[in-house]
Design brief:
single chain; alpha+beta; Aminopeptidase; 5 helices; 32% strand
């Protein structure tokens, strides 16, 4: 399956909420589905972040042929001139096991390498998420540290651009 990335916009909240309100999807992220009253401000913050850089931010992953929503991909920076970006992806369960996350990760690494000034990438995963760990290692990420994120375990991996 071919896919395309398109930045999330104000009209895309339903797709975002479909993803983050799914307990199966969020099991390795927040360990719980996100309720509407949390998802709305998170989405608003994501849209603000999307305005920081024209080529970076949070993207819908869409089936190139039919336009079906597959998930979220992000290459997020905190400022337009940042030299570090966070890489991430969340895929709907019906698309798991098709190699999409690995292809998305490769695409995001390539996109990061094309951005002048970006020097570092990092990703945060649940240490128990072995498939995501494998995807990141296959994309030359290396272990940096374990951290606690609001009571949840997190493993940070990084790589240069």
């Amino acid at each position: 399956m071919e896919f395309v990335l398109k930045k999330f916009g104000p009209q895309d909240f339903d797709d975002y909420f479909r993803l983050v309100s799914d307990a199966k999807v969020m099991a390795m992220i927040t360990e719980r589905a996100m309720p509407l009253d949390e998802a709305q401000p998170d989405y608003a913050a994501m849209l603000l972040n999307n305005g920081i850089h024209p080529e970076l931010g949070s993207f819908k992953i869409l089936d190139a042929q039919h336009g079906h929503f597959i998930g979220l991909a992000k290459l997020e920076v905190s400022a337009a001139n940042a030299d570090t970006a966070e890489l991430g992806y969340i895929i709907l369960p019906e698309y798991w096991g098709q190699g999409i996350a690995g292809r998305v990760a490769r695409l995001l690494v390539t996109r990061a390498q094309e951005q002048p000034g970006l020097k570092h990438l990092f990703a945060i995963i649940d240490p128990a998420n072995l498939p995501s760990r494998k995807i990141l290692l296959n994309n030359q990420f290396v272990f940096r540290e374990f951290m606690d994120f609001d009571g949840l375990p997190g493993e940070i991996l990084e790589r240069g651009c």
